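By convention, each integer encodes one residue's backbone shape. The lines below illustrate.
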Amino acid sequence: MRDAMLLAEISLYCTLQKEDCVKPTFTNDGFSSKFAIWKQQYGYLLDLPTGLMLKFSYCIANVILAKRTLDRVEADALNLASSLSPQTSRSSTVNPQDPSTKSLQGHVYELSFRVIQAFIAIPSSSSGDLPEFHSLCVAYSLLILGQYDELPPAIAKNELYSALQEMRRRCSESNAYSVAVRLSVERAWENFLRVDGVNSVEVVRQESQFHNHAAQSTSANKACHNSGAGGQVESLDLDFFFNGGYLDLLDVDNFLV
């Protein structure tokens, strides 16, 4: 079974790398149809108790594909705008409220959230020891969740709240998580409070509990707030990562240990 899991994960990323001219569509469950054949062959593994890591990778592959597609759509729109006459309004060509673009943005946010859900489904005793590639995927997904101005309908506010609180709890109780993950969690949390306006009394109560836990993990907090932390997160290049940079981090040896 372990060999089947490893083969399925390698096949998943190989499928992600296959170039085609067809714009990916998304099925009713929110995932890309590009992985339909892969899912027919390996989908049964996703529901097994031992399939948590494979499900995590499946969510990662989907968000990479969705983000890469969104980048291409926006780049094509910009190229079209630059080829038009100066009299043509740029906003009439590159419109962030365009239904197809907005829908794709919603999928990127939704899939980023699913990455976080899949991550916290992994026992905390194991989630802090993941390879660098997986850790950075979590950080990037959190950064994306820290950018939205309107929560997509597919993401329930209470579920996002619970997921971010769980991420914060894990980071406060263990120093195994990277600085990128820690600061990305806080950015996503701050954006959630800014955009969605959680009840202030509940926030005060939860923050009090959180800081009590954090005070018991001094070494973890020091790791999160060292002087170079901000620079490390600022240096994360989302466009580079989602358009192929992740391959530099995806070491096949990680699958064969």
